[in-house]
Amino acid sequence: MKGWMYILECSNGSYYTGSTIDLLRRFNQHQNGEGANHTKKFLPVKLIYFEEYKHVAESFYREKQIQGWSRKKKEALMRGENELLPELAIAYRDKVLRDSKELLDKICEQ
Question: How many domains does one find in the chain?
């Protein structure tokens, strides 16, 4: 099943990163205060970036990867400045990333 990783900008300027199998439905849920607690607090939200994947597990993995990124690294991604991503890397989420990768591998084996 196809999936999307997305980034929302909240009314306070913060970014929210998520994943879903139905991008429009999930965006509407966030906009109507039915999404995550963070987006409920800072409505309205704007969809500012998304990536499409062949399998929802891949979008979930990407969500967890990007959630660990700094604001500057997320902004470089959204601007398409991929050459800056390695230098903006931070290491404190390496364990979460590795665990998410293992989960993705298990899901894809099924």
Answer: 1
